[in-house]
Recover the amino acids of this structure.
């Protein structure tokens, strides 16, 4: 690729929280980045707006039944169905694929993009959580570049630049603690979806916002870090840091600790992944931390009794195989059930534990991951229905 050519970008999940922010970041770099393609699942209204505003050459919509609702303003090529994601991710004009879809819908597309030699800007957590064992060896074998967008992992990546990973004693992932960090066990039992969705520091999609309140998000991030940085679980720890200014840290064998600090704004790690190794000015004044407003930085050990999600993350990570896929599949269903008021907040970890207890581990392949997710979803759904009957009896 010639150095002067703009980098072609495809965004899978352009209508989501990360997808929208990626489009915003790209506005600051018209000389460096060129939007080639966007893809989404069912939010046709927003997709149509994005087609109008950003004029991508290719558009993907996985819901085939919504085909007739796409407005083709400038002769874009529109692709339909789940297979559209892989088609878009491997287009010749695309250099960087931003994987900003939720769940595992883009797993095959991500694998295809790695095989096609694309640079992957990976926001999606489920890819490495469920399939890190397949994806990371593939990345190495193909010499592909996988740049993380998740803020904690971006922080660790930034701390590790120029360092030898063998010098690392441990990674310290920080967690805001979510909306319920100060709730007692009693209060957690009665916590409502509205309360859970009010994240104190970040504005994110619904699933990840609820996952932050249970610390399940941090549990998944521990697994993500294990695969990304190739370190055992004993070398990955978590601290609750309520200010969300230190995005994560690396402690080295000599006792030094490197931390990455910045305002809590996902556009910064998105920009870093798109523009690496450049550190050009992207956001305006909001990118800069106002130290006059930072009076203290607090760090505490996570409470695994009130928030067992983190413990579950470690447990399934250590067990390996399809356990993480079972956790991801079940978590999607129980979080949705909680948001719909069908189960209580503390039912979330309890039901996840039951699903995991019923799971039979298997060796990881794209097929077993998909099969496990479907099994775990069905299992969790049935448990939620039973739970609901008990509540209303
Ligand atoms: P959102 O729920 O806001 O967005 C999800 C995106 O995925 C939407 O564009 C949605 O399209 C698309 N999508 C969902 N299902 C399908 C499908 N079947 N086919 C095609 N597209 C689909 O999620 P977030 O942006 O919050 O998160 C995305 C990923 O990034 C998650 O894995 C999350 O854990 C991770 N992440 C997010 C962070 C954040 O700050 N939000 C931070 C770090 C990681 P549509 O709505 O049109 O169906
Ligand atoms: Mg994160």
């Amino acid at each position: 690729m010639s150095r002067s050519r703009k980098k072609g970008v495809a965004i899978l999940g352009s209508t989501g929280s990360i997808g929208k922010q990626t489009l915003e970041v790209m506005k600051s770099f018209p000389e460096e980045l060129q939007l080639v393609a966007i893809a989404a699942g069912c939010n046709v209204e927003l997709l149509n707006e994005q087609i109008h505003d950003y004029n991508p050459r290719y558009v993907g919509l996985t819901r085939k039944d919504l085909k007739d609702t796409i407005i083709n303003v400038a002769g874009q090529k529109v692709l339909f169905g789940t297979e559209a994601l892989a088609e878009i991710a491997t287009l010749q004009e695309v250099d960087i694929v931003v994987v900003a879809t939720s769940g595992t819908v883009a797993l095959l597309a991500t694998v295809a993009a790695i095989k096609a030699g694309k640079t992957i800007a990976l926001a999606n957590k489920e890819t490495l959580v469920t399939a890190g064992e397949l994806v990371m060896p593939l990345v190495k074998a193909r010499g592909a570049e996988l740049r993380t967008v998740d803020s904690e992992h971006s922080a660790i990546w930034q701390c590790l630049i120029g360092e030898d990973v063998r010098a690392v004693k441990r990674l310290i992932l920080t967690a805001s603690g979510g909306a319920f960090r100060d709730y007692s066990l009693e209060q957690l039992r009665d916590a409502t979806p509205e309360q859970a969705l009010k994240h104190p520091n970040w504005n994110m999609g619904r699933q990840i916002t609820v996952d932050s309140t249970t610390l399940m998000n941090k549990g998944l991030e521990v697994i993500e870090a294990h695969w990304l940085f190739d370190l055992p679980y004993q070398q990955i720890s978590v601290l609750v840091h309520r200010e969300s200014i230190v995005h994560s840290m690396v402690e080295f064998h000599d006792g030094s600790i490197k931390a990455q600090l910045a305002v809590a704004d996902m556009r910064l790690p998105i920009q870093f992944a798109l523009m690496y190794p450049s550190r050009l000015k992207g956001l305006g004044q909001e990118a800069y931390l106002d130290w006059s407003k930072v009076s203290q930085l607090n760090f505490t050990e996570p409470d695994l009794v009130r928030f067992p999600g983190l413990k579950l993350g470690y447990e399934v990570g250590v067990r390996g195989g399809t356990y993480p896929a079972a956790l991801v599949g079940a978590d999607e269903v129980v979080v949705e059930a909680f948001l719909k008021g069908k189960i209580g907040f503390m039912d979330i970890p309890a039901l996840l534990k039951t699903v995991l207890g019923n799971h039979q581990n298997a060796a990881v392949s794209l097929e077993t991951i998909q099969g496990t997710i479907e099994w775990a979803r069905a299992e969790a759904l049935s448990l939620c229905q039973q739970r609901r009957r008990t509540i209303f009896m």
User: Anything to note?
Assistant: Residues 150-152, 221 surround magnesium ion (ligand 2) (CB under 6 Å). The chain has three domains: 7-148, 152-265+288-315, 320-393. The radius of gyration is 21 Å. The domain at 320-393 is CATH 1.10.1740.10 (Rna Polymerase Sigma Factor; Chain: A).
